[in-house]
Amino acid sequence: MNFNQAEFLTSYGLSSQLPKSDELEFAFAGRSNVGKSSLINKLFNRKALAKVSAVPGKTATINFYRVENVHFVDLPGYGYAKVAKSEKERWAALIEKYFGDDRNLGLVFQLVDMRHPPTKLDIDMTNYLIECELPFAVVLTKADKLNKTQTKERLAAIRKELPYGEQLTILPCSSQTGAGIEEMRELIEEIVSQ
Ligand code: GDP
Questions:
Q1: Per-residue pLDDT tens over the stretch 16-74
Q2: Which residue(s) pair with 172 in the sheet?
Q3: pLDDT tens digit string along 137-173?
């Protein structure tokens, strides 16, 4: 797969707009400001495919990208405290419609900030993915911000903090240094070729 050939397909802001699809999809989920846009841009070698926002909580749409016939789905970030209740409900409706649509999901990448223990919403999301029996891997973002000792500590801790942590695929990544990005691509390629 040529990761340099990604193109933007479309955005949806309302669950009622979301069409069903049989295409193989890889989705990205995580709280606002976790580094999701930066990671998507790094994965596809692009500067602004996913808009990196300095204002958290701005990306309240589901955005679809495509490489050949594989779809990549940028889910709206969760957990931004300052948004209104109606906005949170719209977010929940979008996510539930998306995951409830019986899609052809190759893998969901759940992004968690590597510097901190997962938030309650991160843990809720992991539990949700497990309950829905969706295939997922945890990407620990901003790995460049930790030194060797801290990296080791967080990697051990996260396996205890996340539900079924010992059994999860956990990948430390950095959009700044590119660490972990090739491993992410390999994971995707492996699933695409199955
Ligand atoms: P999103 O809200 O999840 O899409 O997060 P963004 O990609 O917009 O990133 C949020 C902030 O974190 C921005 O200031 C980014 O520059 C920063 N950031 C994102 N990824 C990394 C990373 O891997 N390393 C470092 N040091 N900062 C990052």
A1: 999 989 999 999 999 989 999 999 999 999 988 887 665 555 557 899 999 999 999 99
A2: 140
A3: 999 999 999 999 999 999 999 999 999 999 999 999 9
Tokens representing residue 95 in the block:
């996510």
Strand partners, 50: none
Atom of ligand 1 nearest to the CA of 30: 3
Cβ(15)–Cβ(94) below 8 Å: yes
Token reading at 156 = 């051990």
CATH number at residue 87: 3.40.50.300
Distance CA 162, CA 138 (A): 10
Pair 26, 71: CB distance under 8 Å = yes
Closest to 106 (Cα-Cα) out of 84, 62, 58, 73? 73
77 in contact with ligand 1, CB cutoff 6 A: yes
How far is it, in rounded angstroms, from Cα 30 to Cα 114? Answer: 12
Q: Please work out whether the CB of residue 117 comes within 6 Å of at least one atom of ligand 1.
A: no
What is the count of structural domains for the chain?
1
Residue 42 CB less than 6 A away from ligand 1? no
ipTM exceeds 0.90, yes or no: yes
Task: Answer whether 63 contacts ligand 1 (Cβ < 6 A).
Answer: no
Range of the structural domain that residue 45 is part of: 3-192
Token pair of 90 as six digits: 């719209």
- Does residue 175 have its Cβ closer than 6 Å to ligand 1? yes
